[in-house]
Design a protein that fits this description.
heterotrimer, A mainly alpha (341), B alpha/beta (669), C alpha/beta (339), A: 341 residues, mainly alpha, 14 helices, 0% strand, B: 669 residues, alpha/beta, MetI-like fold, Rossmann fold, 3 domains, 8-stranded mixed β-sheet
């Protein structure tokens, strides 16, 4: 191809990325992402509210039990504001949410904000650890495998890797959880079986969440590493005789990261979903366990609050990933107006 | 399993599939699962429901190889017959995801640009909503049970599929054959049916397979929460849940369904990967599955010579007529920049190694500019890569000599090799836009080689880089150092690559089609830069090009390559004015000349000479002259024997019996 | 009456501040039976112009008249009118054919869509054979897929497909740029031959001046979306008027001849931010940066001096202004060789 893309102003040199007057590109970019975040969270809020209301069953009856009188139920419904029209309920709800008041749990009569606050810490601990594991195992493992299997050098290793990663990746979260619990908690007694308390308690649940996703990420990273190694700029680096560690770390890794994180973007969303189930297995007092129990009890306020908070966490994590990708890959950053001169 | 059988399969996709690691395993397993799904409930359906309260929680027995569950039912039978329900549910959920996702994705892709942007953002936002949450809600609304679970999981995963579908639709839609089909008048419906869908089908099917595995797992997750399949129906998920609860008592009850889930997932993975390899021609592996036994036998017969490394075959350089690299020059006090003798590059394959470059010898004198001319497949790029010791994996090199500045490269230990090449040789490749690391700044890329091999400090290296950039006519060099590659134009990138090469202070610069991707006015500048470098620093240059005009700009001597061999060599002016080899002649006659320029004896109105036929493919073994099949002068000797590069009376060297025979007066048979 | 007339045609991508004007106010008239070349480098807009003619990209302003009929923003029957008369062959041979269909199927489809004479399947197959022979391919090629052919052969198929509609004008967009030299020669010969046999009109787009010289009688030079010179090829190559044309010619490396000089300095600017005044002035060897006193180049775009059409048949060019001399056209305040 002889047609080249030029990207320069008339002076024949320098940057050709247009900038908004006076505003540094970083802020423009962050501003846009923040706006997106707000929109998504709002949609989640509406969706949560609606869906909760659509669940068949009567929470008042659920609370009072099957033998409660109709009058008592009606009374409780009025008390809980369940007799108002949807729109009123929604506006009241949103108003409270903005004031960080999530109402009172139907089931436990405790303020929902208090419940959420107490579960937020453990949730972040679990998710944070799991994310770190996914990134470390997935990226390091994928990179290593990519390097080893480049140019179809070891087809048997490649088959083995695909097999192992495929198996680990197809293990359901709770199966991994149970298996890990059985081996490491019950049999070997290295870690506690349930609960949050000793610091090491986070290891098994986080591992259960992280392993299948790390396997998935490793597969993606491996393919991206193979792609990167086939690129012209790696050949250029080799022709400069830079030595393998320098080439892998400075030429391959940054380019792999950007692509892999973009492709693996849904991994973090799945991670939170997996956490919800794993928390049940390990009785980990996070938001997921709270949510599951609340759904079973038709405890609307808690369901709304927990769902909203979880969705918020997902959106924030995804935004952080996007920002990280932009920092690592200057090209996509420039595309979004985040030119670094 | 694969080797010889694969060789007999004709259809390329099928053959690639069989060759891909795990393809046959995956396909076999999936087939087995499908058969089980159909047949399972028929055989084991009834025994699976037989309760026997006498033997609950049995671990193992002759009648119940995997034990029993809480109601004394046979675990093995239940596991096997649950295959159908599990697969049906999984496929249904994946189908829902695929259909809904495909519909939304392609609809968004078909919109105008503004609406498409909004649609895309909507899809992205919906992806942020954890599918399991959505599934929980949907199940709560629709009601627990298989139907609810399928719909919930299906819809929950749909946004992911929609994004994929939209990406594929957009990328396929922007490919040129769509535009040309529209220009031919293909209507929208037909465009969709015959052009878009078939080209999207493969990646989408592959993605769909992954979604099936995911759906099975997600549904079993809902089962675990009690929201999925309800008794008396049972799928692997419910069996697994029950088994997990009694895992300490009856481990098999849980392990059996877990194993089945993993087996399904694994076979889908294998099948999917093999399928994606098979459908992407670029990933087809050409070499590795070789017939090792035959190879060893052949090696034994051929002796050490053919496949052994150069160390075993390095005689002392001969003098005089026997030296294929030319007569030793008496005043060669300064070592030649590059000496290549008997270079042969082969690609291992099922039928024996195929030679891509064969018997290439030449020398580049210090400060000289040598041009290598050839069309695609001539081996010119491979030759340059061989000098730089950069050939990709399956290719093998053998040579009597590959010397850089008098130092033999093939026997050097890696550390020394890196130093010699890092400071002695610089290479510039064709496509400047992809030759720089997009993730790091120009400055660091300019300086890393020099800092490593010449021990410069960061400041020293940067100062020198600024100077080099000035030499290649890039203004404001200090600012340029801080920029990223994508911020430069193609011409500037190529000049930066030249500057990068110069940082090593090489004695040799190899430029492989350095200006092919550039505009012609920019090309002129880059060629001038190369000329300056040669003149002022005395850097020897090997310029590789298919463009004879470019060769004429810069080179002192020219090498013409065809099908991996050198067919003519000589002084530039003479060779271009009076070519000897029939191929060189034909090549020169096929280049259109600008009217109004120096007359070459042919008027522009005359038809261009074309060469009938086509070059031999690498897998075609040509015993005689590789050009004989297309040559107007070919005699019988040409197809039997390979002509060696010999001196021609007019000057230079030619590999042609007819030309050299005619000159020395040999009888033409 | 010309076969094709472009009247102040402009093509824009994007809108507002970030709009890229790929083709800026181009007027051109092409007579039937002639062969016109469009020369330019990246950012010149030549490919965009070609695509605008066949309605692959929309025009932002201006009028396109084909065989007497206004086909700007064509819909419905106007599209058919275009298709019957104009067809295009693209640069990348493999990208322009559907990889999932055999060559025969693609050709049969093109015939079926465009050739009213070919009514049934048998007729169509006969026509396919005819087309394949026209481009000197073995008719048995119809059963093979694109990836089984070489670049040169696929380009012949693409030409055959374009001819299926029986067009009068063929637009050739860099059709040999992706091919080896010897293969290029065969395609160029074929194209010359076809033009004579079928009486076609060619619009050849290329960055390679030698190709233009071989195929075309006249040529226009484009730079950053504007037409800067129009002339018969012989005149253009021996005595160009516009400094950019001169530098293009100076830059073409010839096989036998003098060493080239780089007379254009710097790189082609970003088409989004064209220089003020004459767009070529920052690189011009005889412009304000090289010769003091030529401020006109900085202040006035030579195109503003008149709105004229470049007619390449030796007929008079309308309008006064710089450089319009006897059928030639050069948008320059100080054209080369002018008194």
């Amino acid at each position: 191809m002889t047609l080249t893309q030029t990207d320069q102003p008339a002076s024949g040199q320098g940057v050709g990325v247009p900038r908004r007057r006076g505003v540094p590109p970083v802020l423009v970019f962050l501003g846009r992402r923040l706006a997106q975040l707000v929109v998504v969270v709002w949609i989640v809020e509406v969706a949560t509210f609606l869906m909760v209301r659509l669940i068949p069953g009567d929470p008042a009856r659920e609370v009072l039990g099957p033998r409660a009188s109709a009058a008592a139920i009606a009374g409780l419904r009025r008390q809980l504001g369940l007799d108002q029209p949807f729109l009123t309920q929604y506006l009241r709800y949103t108003g409270h949410v903005l004031g960080l008041d999530f109402g009172t749990s139907f089931y436990t009569r405790l303020p929902v904000s208090q419940l959420l606050a107490s579960r937020l810490g453990p949730e972040l601990e679990l998710i944070g650890t799991a994310i770190a594991m996914v990134l470390v195992f997935g990226i390091a493992g994928g990179l290593l495998l990519g390097i080893l299997t480049r140019e179809a050098r070891h087809p048997r290793l490649e088959s083995l890797a695909v097999l192992v990663l495929g198996i680990v990746g197809s293990v359901p979260g709770y199966v991994a959880a149970t298996g890990l619990a059985f081996v490491f908690a019950v049999t070997l007694k290295w870690f506690p079986v349930a609960g949050n308390t000793p610091a090491s308690a986070v290891v098994l649940p986080a591992l259960a969440i992280a392993l299948p996703l790390a396997a998935l990420l490793a597969r993606i990273v491996r393919v991206e590493t193979l792609n990167a190694l086939a690129q012209n700029y790696v050949r250029g680096a080799r022709s400069k005789r830079l030595g393998r560690p320098a080439i892998y770390l400075r030429y391959v890794l940054p380019n792999v990261l950007a692509a892999a994180l973009t492709l693996g973007g849904t991994i973090f969303t799945q991670l939170i979903g997996s956490a919800i189930i794993v928390e049940s297995v390990f009785a980990w007092n996070g938001l997921g366990l709270l949510l599951t129990q609340a759904v079973l009890h038709l405890d609307f306020p808690v369901v709304e609050g927990a769902a909203l908070l979880l969705a918020l966490i997902v959106v924030v994590v995804n935004t952080l990933v996007d920002v990280a990708v932009s920092l690592v890959d200057p090209r996509s950053a420039a595309g979004r107006g985040l030119a670094v001169a | 399993m694969a080797g010889p059988a694969a060789g007999r399969i004709r259809h390329p996709v099928l053959r690639a599939f069989v060759r891909a690691p795990g393809g046959l395993i995956g396909a076999g397993l999936l087939l087995g699962l499908l058969v089980l799904a159909v047949v399972g409930p028929m055989i084991w359906g009834h025994p699976a429901t037989v309760t026997d309260l006498n033997v609950p929680y049995q671990v193992h027995s002759p009648e119940h190889p995997l034990g029993t569950d809480s109601l004394g039912r046979d675990v093995l039978a239940r596991t096997l017959s649950a295959t159908r329900l599990t697969l049906v549910l999984g496929l249904s959920a994946a189908a829902i995801s695929a259909v809904v996702g495909f519909g939304i994705g392609t609809a968004v892709a078909a919109l105008g640009p503004r609406a498409r942007g909004i649609g895309r953002r909507a899809i992205e936002s919906s992806l942020s909503f954890p599918p399991i949450l959505l599934a929980l809600f949907l199940v709560a609304i629709i009601g627990a049970g298989a139907r609810g679970a399928v719909i919930a999981i299906g819809l929950g995963a749909a946004p992911g599929f929609a994004r994929l579908a939209e990406n594929f639709a957009t990328s396929v839609g922007s490919r040129e054959f769509i535009a040309s089909a529209k220009a031919t008048g293909v209507g929208r419906v037909r465009l969709m049916q015959r052009y878009l869908l078939p080209n999207m089908a493969e990646p989408l099917v592959l993605a769909g397979l992954a979604y099936v595995a995911g759906a099975i797992i997600d549904i079993s997750g809902l089962d675990f929460l009690g929201l999925g399949v309800q008794p008396p129906a049972y799928d692997w998920g419910t069996l697994l849940t029950a088994g997990v609860q009694s895992i300490y008592v009856t481990p098999f009850a849980g392990m059996a369904p877990a194993f089945m889930i993993m087996l399904t997932g694994t076979s889908l993975v294998f099948f999917g990967e093999a399928l994606s390899r098979a459908l992407n021609p670029r990933l087809w592996v050409t070499g590795p599955r070789r017939d090792r036994r035959a190879e060893r036998a052949r090696a034994g017969r051929a002796g050490k010579a053919g496949l052994a490394g150069p160390a075993a075959a390095r005689p002392a350089p001969a003098t005089g007529a026997a030296d294929p690299a030319g007569p030793v020059v008496a005043d060669a006090v300064v070592a030649d920049a590059v000496v290549v003798e008997n270079l042969r590059i082969t690609l291992p394959s099922g039928g024996g190694p195929r030679a891509l470059v064969d018997g290439v010898s030449f020398r580049l004198r210090a400060g000289e500019v040598l041009g290598i001319v050839g069309e695609s497949g001539s081996g010119k790029t491979l030759t340059s890569l061989a000098i730089g010791q950069l050939l990709p994996h399956p290719l093998r090199t053998t040579a009597t000599r590959i010397e850089l500045g008098g130092i033999e490269l093939t026997t050097l230990p890696p550390g020394r090799l890196a130093r010699v090449l890092g400071t002695g040789l610089a290479m510039i490749f064709q496509d400047p836009m992809s030759s720089m690391n997009p993730a790091s700044r120009a400055g660091s890329q300019l300086t890393d080689g020099a800092r490593r091999h010449r021990g410069l400090s960061r400041e020293e290296a940067r100062a020198e880089a600024v100077q080099r950039l000035g030499e290649v006519r890039i203004g404001d060099a200090r600012r340029a150092l801080r920029r990223y590659p994508h911020q430069f134009s193609g011409g500037m990138q190529q000049r930066i690559m030249i500057a990068m090469g110069l940082m090593a202070r090489p004695r040799v610069l190899i430029a492989d089609e350095p200006t092919t991707a550039l505009d012609v006015t920019v090309q002129a500048q880059v060629l001038e830069v190369l000329r300056d470098i040669n003149a002022s620093e005395g850097t020897a240059i090997i310029l590789i090009s298919h463009n004879l005009g470019v060769i004429n700009q810069l080179c002192d001597r020219v090498l013409v390559m065809y099908a991996g061999r050198v067919v003519e060599e000589g002084d530039r002016e003479r060779l271009l004015a009076d070519p000897q080899h029939p191929y060189t002649k034909a090549l020169l006659a096929s280049v259109p000349v600008l009217p109004g320029t120096v007359p070459s004896g042919t008027s522009p109105a005359a038809e261009l000479k074309t060469i009938p036929g086509r070059p031999p493919r690498p897998d075609e073994d040509v015993p005689g002259c590789s050009f004989a099949a297309r040559c107007p002068l070919a005699i019988s000797r040409c197809t039997a024997e390979r002509p060696a590069l010999t001196a021609a009376a007019a000057g230079g060297k030619v590999a042609c019996f007819v030309v050299t025979g005619a000159i020395t007066g040999e009888a033409v048979r | 009456m010309s076969l094709l007339e472009l009247d102040h045609v402009a093509v824009r991508y994007g809108a507002g501040r970030h709009a890229l004007t790929a083709v800026d106010d181009v007027s051109l008239a092409v007579e039937a039976g002639t062969s016109i070349g469009i020369v330019g480098e990246s950012g010149s807009g030549k490919s965009t112009l070609a695509r605008a003619i066949v309605q692959l990209v929309p025009t932002a302003s201006g009028r396109i008249t084909l065989d007497g009929r206004d086909v700007t923003g064509a819909r419905g029957s106007a599209v058919r009118h275009i298709r019957d008369r104009v067809q295009m062959v693209f640069q990348d041979p493999f990208a322009s054919l559907n990889p999932r269909r055999t060559v025969g199927a693609t050709l049969a489809e093109a015939v079926g869509l465009n050739d009213r004479r070919a009514s049934g399947g048998g007729d169509r197959q006969a026509r396919v054979t005819e087309l394949l022979e026209l481009v000197r391919l073995d008719p048995a090629a119809r059963y093979r897929y694109p990836n089984e052919f070489s670049g040169g052969q696929i380009q012949r198929v693409a030409i055959a497909r374009a001819l299926a509609a029986g067009p009068r004008l063929l637009i050739l967009d860099e059709v040999t740029s992706a091919l080896d030299v010897s293969v290029q020669a065969a395609i160029l010969n074929l194209l010359r031959d076809l033009r004579e046999r079928l009486g076609l009109t060619y619009l050849c787009i290329s960055h390679d001046l030698s190709v233009i010289g071989y195929l075309c009688q006249s040529a226009v030079v484009m730079y950053l979306g504007q037409l800067v010179e129009a002339a018969p090829c012989a005149d253009l190559f021996s005595a160009p008027r516009h400094p950019y044309s001169r530098s293009l010619l100076d830059s073409v490396p010839q096989v036998r001849g003098e060493r080239i000089r780089a007379t254009a300095s710097g790189d082609v600017p970003n088409p989004r931010f064209p220089p003020p005044g004459c767009r070529y002035h920052p690189r011009c060897a005889v412009g304000p940066l090289a010769q003091p006193g030529r401020e006109a180049c900085l202040q006035r775009d030579p195109h503003q001096d008149d709105g004229r059409a470049a007619s390449l048949n030796g007929g008079p060019v309308t309008g006064p202004g710089s450089g319009a001399v006897g059928g030639r056209f050069a948008a320059c305040h100080f054209p080369l060789g002018a008194p």
